[in-house]
Write the structure tokens for this entry.
Amino acid sequence: MSLSTPPPINHFTERLTLHYDPGLKRNRFNQVANAIAAFFAALAVVPLFLVLIYVLIQGGRLISLQLLTDLPPAPGLEGGGIGNAIIGTIVVTLIASLIAIPVGVGGGVYLSEYAQNGWFSKFVRFGNDVLAGVPSIISGVFVYSLIVATRVFFDQSFSAMAGGIALSVLMLPTVIKTTYEGLLLVPQEMRMGAYGVGASRFVTITQITLPAAFTPIATGVVLGIARAAGETAPLIFTALFSPFWPEGLFHPIATMSVLIFNFAIMPYEAQNELAWAASFVLVIMILGANLLARWISHASRS
Amino acid sequence: MRSAPPIDAFTLRRRPPQEKLIDIGFRQLTLVLAASVGIILLAIFLTVFSGAREAMATFGFKFLTTSAWDPVNEQYGALIAIYGTLVTAILSLLIAIPIGLGTAIFITEDLLPSKLREAIGLMVELLAAIPSVVLGLWAIFVMEPAIRPFLNLLHTTLGWTPFFSTAPQGSGTAPAILILVVMVLPIITAISRDALNQVPIELRQGAYGVGTTRWGAIFNVILPAAVSSIMGGVMLSLGRAMGETMAVTMIIGNSLNFSVSLLAPGNTIASMLANQFGEADGIQVSALMYAAVVLMVLTFVVNVLAQWIVRRLSLRY
């Protein structure tokens, strides 16, 4: 048969032309499956909207300067604010960051720049994954028995310091993982170039490798801070709560997350409203941090 | 031909001792910082175990199978909390897996313009960022009143089964399961999406090339190729669901009485810890530590299993 002659029009080629029969069983199944997937996707987005709407409306309408700067009222009284809890959240998160970021970045540097992929680095990476999976309440129990019950800090039991340490335990795995993975993305040629012009290992890491990996590390760190700021479970019995202004790093301190927990289950309207207001402030802070992280990684890509 | 320049035209720079010192010091410092992960992990295990020793000696394995929680007579058993932990975590996953996987498929296959898909992905990720205590607050004041009629209906129509045998009374296991679904859904969706995105394009092209439909390709080619990562993600979310504290504590009712009914108040290990640890003393602290050991072992096993699944079950293509 010659290839140049067009095939005669017959039944066979007619079946080869493209046509789509929506009535076929498999096409009907396709339609149904599409609809189910779309329904599930809608279902997954609904809770975000419902939570955000309620937090923004219920909490947002209460926001005033007085609310942001006053102390919470005594049970049964009206008014008051969440000023001490806002400061407390910032203080405790700051303590956690000051511990977790240097330790985590250092550990990540070791894993990526020095480790030889031997048993030690395998163990550390495995341990890091396990630590990331430890329930947050366990970190509270741990710091409680290690620091609070033993009163190591100036004979103080519950303290902002203990709360910050408990949060740092939760932040650490995130920071290590993002640092390690960020450094792995730095091209080997940059390190070679630095060694080639005579830079020492230390100078190469601090001046070349770490700055090159700044974006992924910063993104991970910001996300880690945002997550720590919203954590409650490790703080309930480490930082405890306080109806007063912060008295120092070694005294109990109020935080927004614990305030929400305590005030949500109180039978007083004023306290419940403060819980919503604190949720509003917390959610705005955390979503802001998330969008910031997204912006950091986006700005560097374009 | 010119002769090669004499070798001393180049002066080799000797590294000054302080530069070497800094180099070695920095290396040792990062080594210590990396080791801190292992030290912290070990310290957590040792602290909780040593705190639990007293209760372990007193109650033994009976602790796991009895449900008395009686501070007055110093009788402790964690069965209610263990049962609650497993039931809430597993049931919430059973609901969240199809929804999360469906969402992940919806935003990775080209059913929609990519802008819209990215928007849905972003929204699911933002849901993961909302603190659990805020979700708990929302569950108490918004979700639970909203689903009460539905739970009542479940009780009236299915009340003859033990699982719905009690009338809903505000807080309970069922609302706790629903809020857990909201919390693990973003994790499952995100991990499934990454897994589906990593399936090589050739596999899809091959499937479409032999003339299958979209869902034929998804069920027969794409999902099997991604199943190990998805399973790993599911196990990770199981660990997360078992350890989740705040939202569950606020809505589950923290009951000390055993009930099979999902509409009755229940308890989990994490919420028991959150509620009682601050005020406990004597052997109650040790009993709570024992419960913490159980929770830690459960999450440890689940997490290690997750890593193992990802490593072992991955298809080679």
Q: What stands out?
A: The radius of gyration of chain B is 27 Å. Chain B has a mean pLDDT of 84.
